[in-house]
What we know:
Shape: globular
Strand order of the largest sheet: 1-2
Largest sheet: 2 strands, antiparallel
Strand content: under 5%
Radius of gyration: 18 Å
Distance between the termini: 10 Å
Structural class: mainly alpha
Amino acid sequence: MIIRRLESSLQLITQPDHAALAARIIRLWLPERFPESSRKAAILHAAAEHDNGWAEIDETLVIDATTGQLLDFMEISDDLKRETSLRGLERLASDPYAAALVAQHRLHVYRRYAKHLEWSTFFAEVTTARDAYLRATGSVALDELLRDYSFVRAGDLAARVPEGKKDDELVSLSRAFNRMTNQIQSQQRELIDANRQLDRNPQRNNNGKRSGNGERRREQR
């Protein structure tokens, strides 16, 4: 659940609704921003369904037992984050390329946990699933998937643009879109480099001890 804490109320947005909005935004992009491709339908499917694993959590809501406060997607437990991720991948199994894109999304948004021992099994499972779904497509290379994932990620971010005044909503969204699409090439390089880094670095060092720095709070999904 995405929670906007307003002055006197809470605005609740389910993750599936957020994902559906991301796909609607991508569909409106001009061809020069989102070129025609044989994989375009799968990219849109991935954008529309990238958060479908959250549906059950959003229906029941998650309450902090101590404070009684409603928890959003950033505040729930790591176990629930992993659970929703794996459930979402299973639901996309009939569309292997969309599933591979969503697996890459999970690897990207949770990358800050890549060196955390308790996340090692998750990263191994999701990486294996991504590669298996990619092989099932028959002909798509990993670098191509990473380029296509940039569209999914840009749509995901565009769907989270804060609302402004009525008169400037479209302007704000347009500016956010332009910033993100202008960064697609650099995002592609970042994704490729990060993927290669994950392949090179083991989860533990030679002494069996966990390596890496402490957790830093970044975007959480």
